[in-house]
Write a structure and sequence with these properties.
GMP Synthetase, Chain A, domain 3; 117 residues; three-stranded mixed β-sheet
Length: 117
């Protein structure tokens, strides 16, 4: 990936995170934007979102999709690009998978015995 596209991805991620945190309320859920992949033609962007807490991740994605045009308009005010990317939201469950892997490893690994010297 070219350096320019990496910078655009990071800029869109940072600004979108700021806008979502400021403008949307998710009723006690922690919503994090993990990654943004903007296509090389800058016309669309795939936003990967993780959700922590007791609630519906599908509801979060629906709320983001419902507010997509508002989010794009707010982002266009601060991120100056030839095109404002059409945002597509995806649920990212990598944090949950990582937590599950750590739990499995803890169950498999025998407890470490303290060294007595």
């Amino acid at each position: 990936m070219k350096h320019r596209l990496l910078r655009v991805n990071e800029l869109v991620k940072r600004e979108l995170s700021r806008i979502v945190t400021r403008d949307l309320d998710f009723d006690g859920l922690l919503v994090t934007i993990n990654q943004v992949n903007v296509t090389p033609d800058l016309r669309s962007g795939h936003v990967f979102v993780s959700v922590l807490g007791k609630g519906s991740p599908a509801g979060v994605i629906q709320k983001l999709e419902a507010n997509r045009t508002i989010l794009q308009a707010e982002m266009a005010k601060t991120v100056v690009l030839k095109y404002t990317p059409h945002l597509v939201f995806h649920l990212d469950d990598s944090i949950e998978r990582g937590t599950r892997v750590f739990k499995i490893l803890e169950e498999i690994a025998p407890p470490a015995e303290p060294d007595e010297h």
